[in-house]
Amino acid sequence: MVETDTGSTRADGGVRSIARAVEVLELFDAAHPLRQLRDIVTLTGLPKTTVVRLLATLESLGLIVDRGDSSYGPGPGFLRWVKLAETLWEVGPEARRVMSGLVDAFGETVNVYIRRILDRVSVAQVEGTATVRSVVEVGVPYQLASGAAGKILLGGAPDEVLRDLAARRSDLDLESLRREVAGIREAGYAVTHGDRELGASAVAAPIFGKDGRVIAALSASGPTSRFTADRVGRYVDAVTAAAREISEAGLGPVEVFL
Predict the structure, then answer these.
(1) What value does the mean pLDDT of the chain take?
(2) What is the rounded distance in angstroms from the CA atom of residue 122 to the CA atom of residue 230?
(3) Which InterPro entries match (predicted)?
(4) DSSP code of 90?
């Protein structure tokens, strides 16, 4: 069970050419390391001449490689940024140990999510051991208002974030969202079944910074068929305990950005 949802929001007021270049780059992922020019044109909805100019600019910067057969892929210029990002956004060894312990105990995939404006992003993942398991792409934005981790992150967000989400999504009622988030904040954990995707369930708890703010969410997720009432109770106890342990030890280098 692989989550394939893409980012739900784009910052307003950005420079259009930069936004378009990022849109092109986002078309490349593990499932699509190469893209044909015609596919890039179709998927972006941009004129072919615009796409060709964007690709040429990205190629001059080493961010795109033209294979010479109208297909393109990420360029070597990303390598230094990948290494830098891994250094700065890495969770600490203690957090990794705690995450791995949860996977060993229950077999479900464990993620650490942070909030980025109106999205949630996994910055660390330890895949579950079951054959059928939940997997998200680390570093890819997912909807903040859906899923247990998103609800936890909303509990630490200012009210203006709730207002912006409700304004952008017609299916969200602001007062209902506020009540739900307040209840989850008071409980100290969130459980969702099919909230993000039919057949997917998750349990999440807050990770706190040294100043007491919610800086991240620890989530265990998998198919709903395994999240029975008995198991969910044990998952809640384990995930909340693990989140407290990570809060006390510190999340690692990534914490300076949160």
Answers:
(1) 92
(2) 27
(3) GAF-like_dom_sf, HTH_MetabolicPath_Reg, Tscrpt_reg_IclR_C, Tscrpt_reg_IclR_N, WH-like_DNA-bd_sf, WH_DNA-bd_sf
(4) P
Q: How far apart are CA 166 and CA 243, in angstroms?
A: 28
HSE (side-chain half, CA atoms, 13 Å) at 179: 5
Phi/psi region, residue 232 (left: phi>0; alpha: psi -120 to 50; beta: rest), is alpha
Residues 202, 214: contact at Cβ < 8 Å? no
Backbone angles phi, psi at 51, to 5 degrees: -65, -45
The pLDDT > 70 percentage for the chain reads 95
Q: Record the tokens describing residue 30, joined without a space.
A: 């593990």
Specify which residues 111 forms β-bridges with.
125, 219
Closest among 123, 124, 120 to 146, alpha carbons compared: 120
Following DSSP, what letter does each residue of 62-108 receive, concatenated?
A: TSEEE-SSSEEEE-TTHHHHHHHHHHHSPPPHHHHHHHHHHHHHH--
Backbone φ and ψ for 73, nearest 5 degrees, come out as -150, 170
**Count of alpha carbons within 13 angstroms of residue 104, beta-carbon side:** 7
pLDDT digits (tens, 9 = 90+) for 74-114: 999 999 998 898 888 999 999 999 999 999 999 999 999 99
Place of tokens 């040429």: 56
